[in-house]
């Protein structure tokens, strides 16, 4: 870190704390652009190897070359927070980034989704992900790259299919169920219920029938990674380990995805405020930093092209600015602690602000033509939030394991409001079949809404 920036960092941190920011310590590190690109693509400084990250790297590089993407920083919440800054950026840009990171650190330290995620996945995800990568490298040495890649294909295809309402270390389903004894025809109903109460000694043994084998799962199960890892009939230990490693990392990324508009907007509000009140910054540095701020929170894709996707920095910054102007910082802080993007946008993006920001709903035709649609505020909410619903993935549940070991999945298409593209769905089923090693099917509807069952593997 250059001496000049190193001088500003503690002073920016002190000012942030004076203004009310509360967070775990932040470790800043200057890195070259190539390293920053890799971190942005992999999501973590060290992560399990897989070909899909190479595809993402190519896409990110193309966006960067076209001027549609510039990476200023990457920050990983934890205790401590890890923040990486690009060493080729100017001191004005990195001064802004330091203040921006403090906003992120405050958000992840206090927002309930982040707090729960870090409590479950741990406060040292960078080290944990490196340990996962090391174990996978060991598996490659033991069983070969091809077999490991096939398991990673399946696990990463399902990385969005977790259930963060359940803890990471959750117990297995009970294997048996106790059916209550049916009361005799002439037995008063009250006595039948009374004898089923605990602590009735020998009588309690007469209140239920012999244990019966429980249905697995007892109700539709949304956490596909957890279920397959624990109930896959022929999976080896190293395969289960990979599934659980991917699941643990997905727990970490889920609040990042679900709070992107809030989180980026909160960080933008605080970097603007900190820089505005940082009287120790030279005037020229401050002006250059605020020019960078304007670039970050603009609504455009590049130059003056109209963006067809919402810039979360732009939208979040303006919602928070209006909230704080109207209700004060403490009220905004309570909202920050309790909401995610779904509640934040629906509750605090009002029609007036939507008009001021020129937000609109559009329809893209098959010929590539884009038309702006007449829409109300609820349709605008849906357009912004629909891609974020359920981690951006269709809602799929494990419904049953058949007697021959076949795995039955069901797609909640009524909630999703869409069907599955058959070829893509079969591709994912093929990945699952490789590790489940028994037939796998899914009950769904096609893109026209017609019911269908897709299957991979033949039943015995």
TrEMBL record:
Residues 3-384 form the SpoVR protein-like N-terminal domain. InterPro entries: Spore_V_R, SpoVR_N. Residues 195-215 are annotated as: Disordered. PANTHER family: STAGE V SPORULATION PROTEIN R. This is Stage V sporulation protein R. It comes from Alkalilimnicola ehrlichii. The lineage of its organism: Bacteria, Pseudomonadati, Pseudomonadota, Gammaproteobacteria, Chromatiales.
């Amino acid at each position: 870190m250059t001496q000049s920036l190193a001088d500003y960092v503690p002073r920016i941190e002190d000012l942030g704390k004076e203004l009310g920011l509360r967070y775990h310590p932040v470790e800043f590190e200057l890195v070259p652009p190539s390293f920053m690109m890799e971190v942005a693509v992999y999501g973590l400084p060290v992560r399990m190897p897989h070909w899909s990250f190479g595809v993402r790297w190519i896409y990110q590089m193309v966006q960067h070359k076209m001027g549609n993407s510039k990476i200023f920083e990457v920050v990983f919440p934890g205790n401590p927070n890890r923040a990486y800054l690009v060493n080729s950026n100017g001191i004005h840009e990195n001064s802004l980034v330091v203040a921006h990171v403090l906003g992120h650190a405050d958000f992840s330290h206090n927002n309930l989704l982040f707090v729960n995620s870090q409590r479950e996945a741990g406060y040292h995800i960078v080290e944990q992900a490196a340990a996962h990568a090391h174990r996978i490298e060991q598996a490659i040495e033991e069983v070969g790259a091809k077999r490991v890649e096939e398991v990673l294909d399946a696990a990463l295809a399902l990385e969005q299919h977790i259930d963060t309402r359940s803890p990471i270390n959750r117990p297995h389903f009970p294997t048996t169920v106790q059916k209550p004894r049916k009361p005799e025809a002439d037995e008063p109903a009250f006595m039948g219920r009374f004898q089923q109460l605990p602590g009735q000694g020998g009588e309690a043994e007469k209140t239920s029938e012999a244990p019966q084998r429980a249905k697995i799962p007892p109700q539709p199960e949304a956490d596909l990674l957890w279920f397959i890892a624990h109930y896959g009939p022929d999976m080896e230990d190293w395969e289960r380990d990979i599934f659980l490693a991917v699941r643990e990392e997905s727990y970490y990324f889920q609040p990042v995805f679900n709070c992107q508009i809030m989180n980026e907007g909160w960080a933008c509000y605080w970097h603007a405020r900190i820089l505005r009140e940082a009287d120790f910054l030279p005037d020229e540095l401050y002006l250059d930093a605020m020019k960078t701020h304007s670039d970050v929170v603009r609504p455009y894709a590049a130059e003056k092209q109209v963006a067809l996707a919402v810039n979360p920095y732009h939208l979040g910054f303006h919602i928070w600015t209006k909230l704080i102007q109207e209700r004060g910082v403490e009220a905004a802080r309570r909202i920050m602690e309790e909401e995610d993007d779904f509640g934040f946008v629906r509750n605090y993006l009002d029609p007036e602000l939507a008009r001021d920001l020129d937000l609109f709903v559009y329809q893209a035709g098959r010929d590539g033509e884009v038309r702006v649609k007449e829409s109300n505020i609820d349709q605008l909410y849906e357009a912004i939030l629909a891609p974020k619903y359920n981690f951006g993935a269709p809602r799929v549940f494990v419904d049953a394991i058949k007697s021959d070991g076949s795995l039955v999945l069901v797609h909640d298409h009524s909630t999703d409001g869409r069907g599955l593209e058959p070829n893509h769905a079969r591709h994912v089923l093929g990945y699952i079949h490789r590790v489940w090693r028994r037939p796998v099917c899914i009950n769904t509807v096609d893109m026209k809404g017609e019911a269908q069952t897709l299957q991979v593997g033949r039943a015995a």
